[in-house]
């Protein structure tokens, strides 16, 4: 804590980068300076939610507890930042994990593997990977499955990594279940009418990180950016409008939701490190719970077969999945006429955000945590 505090006090040239490197180190064992919302204190305060904006029935349909049972927190100095520790009903996180691994990477959605593999090779990543994952042992010498090589997937308006823009001509239908979940969370945080128009899914392993960036490509910054995390834990850094401002470090655990809105919508942020979940189990205990047999009428949550969940659980033993959802356009707004017309974009450049120590590669999911 003393080392991190000293780096925070220094300020000056790129204070964010110094703390990013500090937490990125594999041998950093003293994490007392990292905010833990499961035991809040210090600069953490309780946030008020709009309980009446989401009916209990709609919360259940999205796989969430009634909003009246959620806990929500803010951080002093970060107006518009909301942290909601795991509000999911037992078993419901499993649905989103399966969707991120089995359904959402399917065409017509776009993933990093499309940049260097023939289209026919990326049609069914799940089908090509499930047996290999199920049999996978602990040896690092085993070849990685295609799912383990997945780094990002884009949904809805597909982000162009080359131009850093969205465009009207590169759009596919946004998943209806994820849109419904996002609308309920946004409404609970005071943003009724939120439209889930674009999503970036990030797939992390223990050697992954997300570099320092701001999510500013959306044309409407008045709407929040929503972040959902599943699997292993991470350290998230939230800074200011300039990189010279030292960030605050916080843990994100499985099921946690983070909302960046208002003055916090355009702040620098990063994920320097992915950590084993604090329980020390292969996967967090909140993922051990199966769905109840009776789901509410109209639920977007689907049961997973035991076979499918075995594959997901094996993947999550060394991985973390993050979904970030954003509204790109305000109501009635259109893309400018000079908006990017190059659909898929080019391969991420060398100054990209997603870094892997083990292979020296960098991928570019321009997204919150």
From TrEMBL:
Its cofactor is Fe(2+). Its main location: nucleus. Residues 332-369 are annotated as: Disordered. It comes from the Eukaryota. It is found in: Nucleus. Fe cation binds at residues 213, 215, 269. Monomer. Interacts with DNAJB6. This is Nucleic acid dioxygenase ALKBH1. It comes from Lepidothrix coronata.
